[in-house]
Amino acid sequence: MSNDLLYLSRGDVQALAIAPSEAREAVLQAFRDHAAGLNQSLPKSALGLGPGHGFQAMTAASSAQSIATLKWVSMAPVPPKSPVPGINALICVSDYVSGAPIAVLDGDEITLIRTAALSAAAASRLAPPAPRTIGFIGCGLQAQAHLAAFLDLYPALTSALLFSRSRASAESLAEAASVRGLTAEVVDDADLLLAQSDIVISMVPGAPGLRPFLDANRMKPVAFASAVDIGRSWRPETLPAFDVLVTDSLAQSSAPYDVDGQPVTTVRFQHDLVELADASHPVAAGRRSFFCFRGFALADLALVHLVVAKARIAGIGVKLPR
Q1: Minimum mean pLDDT among 41-50, 64-73, 174-183, 184-193: which range?
Q2: Looking at CB atoms within 10 Å, which of 106, 117, 259, 266 has the fewest?
Q3: Contact 87/75 with Cβ under 8 angstroms?
């Protein structure tokens, strides 16, 4: 085995142009492998320092992919329009059998791709079969990634509604949606967005003084919501309005989280993607469904395996001596 260590920057990962369908299927396969006992993952370990401020570690190993990964994530509050990112991630990759380190990757782009792929994977099992309108609560980089992932999954989407504390980010997402052929509208009323959307993606970052403001009762009777923000933007007392509540891994989470990062007491998850990865679509036909997740380390592992394999074929990255 080579003693070289492959380093992939964020630009290297972007240059590989991972297709949303590839990412979605890689994530679903990771959950199928997990159900088959081919991989292992520890629940996310978090060191909280304050609202939106802390560090997280995510570890996983897969005999199917023959790698093990550690993802290290830092989070810090940043003001609106700040050029400084609020989240930074790095991923270390080791050989499954020998334990030798084989690669180090910038984790920011992997996180974007993986998170959107997780939402899309859940939607493929839970969302209405022919959604037309998608609503975004929060319009930062994750919204851009989700736009691409959901247009790949549902090319018949016709419109996007956008709500954000930053008008500039909402207008940027509206422009991206328009370029892709959607009718896009920036709205100031979150209730209106919920009432008109077949799919809702909430991506509200943690911040001092944040109060939950989304009312699940406002959603269509048949609709799907993905809480990328672990549920902090949803009013806990309204969550029973969802008929089906799903997470990535029940071994990791039993309920959505409130603004203080604590599990809510109003609902509990009924299913996870480990169970639903092989299920026929739709699981939640004719109902409101809610997907909320902290991030599953095996989803990151699946994307890392795909990226490293493609990088080696394309000759992308820098080989570092150990």
Answers
A1: 41-50
A2: 266
A3: yes
How many CB atoms are closer than 10 A to CB 85? 14
Is the pTM of the predicted complex or chain greater than 0.85? yes
Arithmetic mean of pLDDT, 211-232? 97
Pairing of strands 199-202, 223-227: parallel
My answer on whether 309 and 232 are in the same domain is: no
Are 129 and 50 part of one and the same domain? no
| pLDDT at residue number 2 | 60
265 φ/ψ angles, rounded to the nearest 5 degrees: -110, 0
> Alpha carbon 316 to chain centroid distance?
25
Find the domain containing 43 and state its range: 4-110+298-321
pLDDT in tens, 181-220: 999 999 999 999 999 999 999 999 877 788 999 999 999 9
Contacts of 75 by beta carbon, 8 Å cutoff, 6+ apart: 52, 53, 54, 55, 56, 86, 87, 206
Three-state SS at 50: strand
Please, are residues 234 and 214 in contact by the beta-carbon 8 Å criterion? yes
The whole-angstrom separation of Cα 122 and Cα 117 is: 9
24 & 59 share domain: yes
CB atoms within 10 A of CB 241: 17
Task: Give the pair of three-digit tokens for residue 1.
Answer: 């085995």
Cα distances from 249 to residues 41, 124, 245, 253, 256, in angstroms, run 10, 17, 12, 6, 12
Tell me, what DSSP letter sits at residue 195? H
Phi–psi pair at 162, nearest 5 degrees: -130, 125
**Alpha carbon distances (Å) from 14 to 75, 83, 208, 251, 316:** 22, 19, 32, 32, 11
pLDDT the model gives residue 57: 95
SS3 90: strand
Q: At what angle do helices 141-153 and 20-35 cross, to 10 degrees?
A: 80
> Of the candidates 160, 113, 164, 119, which has an alpha carbon nearest to the alpha carbon of residue 139?
164
